[in-house]
Amino acid sequence: MSTSLTLLALLEREPAHGYTLKHRYDALFARTRPLAFGQVYAALNRFDKHGWAEVTGVEIADGPERKRYRITPDGVEAVTGWVYAAEAPSEFSSSSLFARVSVALLSGRSAAEVLDSQRALHLARMRELTAERRTADAAATLAITYELAHLDADLRWIEEAGSRLEPAADALAKAVR
What we know:
Elements: H1 3-10, E1 16-17, H2 18-29, H3 37-50, E2 53-59, E3 66-71, H4 73-84, H5 96-107, H6 111-133, H7 138-162, H8 165-175
Antiparallel strand pairs: 1-3, 2-3
């Protein structure tokens, strides 16, 4: 997900300070990993340089100055282009789990142990999400079911990979010779 463009899109509803923008992002998109404030302010500076957002006012209170940003027409165009652009599903072909299993196979470590521990974490997270889904609103349910579907796909891969560890180890050994 493009964090920067998601932040920019949040400015479409109404102008906001970086602090407010960060909290909106976290509430909607950062279910397990809140966004760092530095990431928000760096993005706002880039938006200003690209002409995608502009400062509409500065408030000076008991702390640092607070700039209020609003999206520009060029920013709306950038968000529209990003929303409708289909992405190649390449992120899945370079996952950390795949890399860790491959390294374990190449190094003689137990790839089965890697898969077993990952399976346990996936199942625990799926139980948490299933319980959370029972009381979630429609927007949260959308995010929860998305995560559940990906966890389910990972579990299917874990099972399949577990059944192919020996031939995979042999193929990887040949590939690095």
